[in-house]
Write a structure and sequence with these properties.
A seven-stranded mixed β-sheet has the order 6-5-4-1-2-3-7, with helices on both faces. α6 packs parallel to α8 and α9 runs antiparallel to α10. About 50% of the residues lie in helices and about 10% in strands. The chain is α/β, with parallel strands linked by helices and about 325 residues long. It is built from twelve helices and seven strands. The N and C termini lie far apart (about 80 Å). The chain folds into two domains: about 60 residues; about 240 residues, no CATH class.
């Protein structure tokens, strides 16, 4: 029987044919589609090939598993109204277990992105990008403690004061690993001088509330400064790692209040948009129209901002000098209190 260019037979379901075509785009070159499906669906390689060729219909359960694994929006397959978008998110309640699932999901998605040669993350940072919060083990532990105590309301932490070791080391390692994985993804970030404030205010709030000792607060501010110094170095060299052979980091300084944290990802032919909600979580979609609008919004922000990575040494110095000045102010407030 003649086959179409997509590799599915002419008699295959048009919906399944479109879904398989979209799935091929979501998998990096060199990765076996049949092997991926066989492993995910727990079927034989031959059964996986029959699904790819359209000889065996994909069940609703299989569609669900595949779309979740590879971030395929069913809006793209079944069509969507111009004012309706389907989003995915990780449920975060007062459960520490859900939180661990959330952190592991960050790493898995970054690893999936890094499988593509052609990949990039565009990050509109109303506050410090989440991965930089995991720059050091100390910053990581504080951030995990703050989120679980004040945002997720994990019962076991409600009467606990911060101290090193209060968060399981295994959880700290998971979060810190996502920072290291983020360094392997080329990215473009848009910051504002107020981007730095959220993290500083969290440290100051916990210190003022008696939850954080002065010694610990000052240690955290020291690591916060080191993290900003790292971003400064990366911006000056336009690279996230010294070993990078080409530019992997673009940074823009915006005078416009950003209003939200937003991430737009390109990975091969796939596109994903993430919009923040509930402080630390995000709604994400691969909806074509929504991703196009997100990209358009970010491109406009870039055009209205100043590129301070690689070039514009004077503007870069002035921007980071303001950030370091804010850290100095918070350090002085805590030392003198």
């Amino acid at each position: 029987m003649p086959t179409k260019k997509t590799g599915t037979p002419a008699g295959a379901s048009p919906v399944q044919e479109l879904f398989i075509k979209r799935l091929r785009q979501a998998i990096p070159q060199g990765i076996g589609l049949a092997e991926e499906l066989a492993d995910l669906l727990d079927v034989s390689i031959d059964s996986a090939y029959r699904r790819i060729r359209g000889e065996t219909e994909l069940t609703l359960d299989e569609l669900y598993k595949i779309s979740r694994k590879f971030g395929i929006s069913l809006d793209e397959i079944f069509g969507n109204q111009s004012d309706t978008v389907t989003f995915r998110y990780i449920k975060l309640t007062d459960s520490a277990k859900d939180f661990e699932t959330y952190l592991k999901g960050l790493i898995m998605h970054l690893k999936d992105i890094n499988r593509f040669e052609n990949r990039k993350i565009y990050y509109v940072a109303e506050e410090i990008p989440i991965f930089y919060s995991f720059y050091s083990k100390k910053l990581t532990e504080f951030k995990l403690f703050y989120w679980q105590r004040s945002v997720l309301n994990v019962p076991d932490l409600q009467t606990v004061k911060f101290a090193w070791g209060v968060i399981p080391s295994s959880l700290i390692e998971v979060a810190h690993h996502s920072f290291k994985e983020y360094l392997n993804v080329p990215s473009s970030e848009i910051w504002n001088v107020e981007t730095i404030f959220t993290g500083l205010r969290q440290i100051k709030f916990y210190y003022d509330s008696g939850i954080l000792q002065k010694e610990h607060a000052l240690e955290l501010l020291t690591d916060y400064r080191r993290m900003i110094e790292m971003v400064h170095t990366n911006a000056a060299g336009a690279r996230k790692n010294n070993s990078d052979k080409q530019d992997t980091f673009s940074m823009y300084a915006s005078e416009v209040l950003l209003g939200t944290n937003a991430i737009y990802i390109t990975a091969g032919e796939s596109r994903y948009s993430y919009i923040s909600f509930n402080t630390m979580n995000s709604l994400n979609t691969a909806n074509k129209e929504f991703c196009e609008e997100t990209e358009h919004w970010i491109r406009n922000l870039e055009r209205k901002s100043t590129l301070i990575s690689g070039v514009s040494e004077k503007q870069r110095y002035q921007f980071f000098n303001k950030l370091f000045h804010h850290i100095d102010e918070y350090e002085l407030l805590i030392k003198s209190s």
